[in-house]
Amino acid sequence: MGITSAIVLFAVIWFMVLFIALPIGLRTQGDEGEIVPGTHAGSPAEFNLKRKAMWVTIVSAVIWCVIAGIIFSGMISVRDLDWFGRMDPPVSQGDGTDG
C-alpha cells in the first residue's frame, strides 16, 4: 500500500466514523425545550464539533491501524477478493533449479 492509498483509506474510514458518530449524544432544541426562533426543533441545542472530530480521529486511527496491519501482513490480498475467478493465476517464483 502506497502513501496515497493509506491517506485515502484513512479519509474513507474517518468520514464513515464521523457519520456514525454525529447522532451519538445529540440533544436537540426540542429535547431541551428551548427552540430558537427561525430554527427547526430537531436542530442541535449544543454541538461541539471540535470534541467530536477529536474522538472520530482517535477511533479512525485505531481502525486504520488494524486494517493497514491486515493489508501489510498479507492476511488478505486482492486475490482473496476475486470471487469470480477473473484474475490470472499468480506467477510462480520457480522451484530453485536452473534448468
What does this structure look like?
It contains three helices and no strands. It has 99 residues and is mainly alpha-helical. The chain has one domain. The two termini are 35 Å apart. The protein has helices at residues 3-21, 29-32, 49-73.
* Major sheet description: none
What's the domain count?
Answer: 1
**Uncertain ranges:** none
What's the alpha carbon Rg, rounded to whole Å? 23 Å
SSE series: HHH
Main structural class: mainly alpha
Structural shape: elongated
Binned, the helix content reads 40-55%
Which properties best describe this structure?
single chain; 99 residues; mainly alpha; elongated
Task: Explain the layout of strands and helices.
Blueprint: H1 3-21, H2 29-32, H3 49-73
Helix pairs in contact: 1-3
Summarize the structure.
The protein has three helices and no strands.
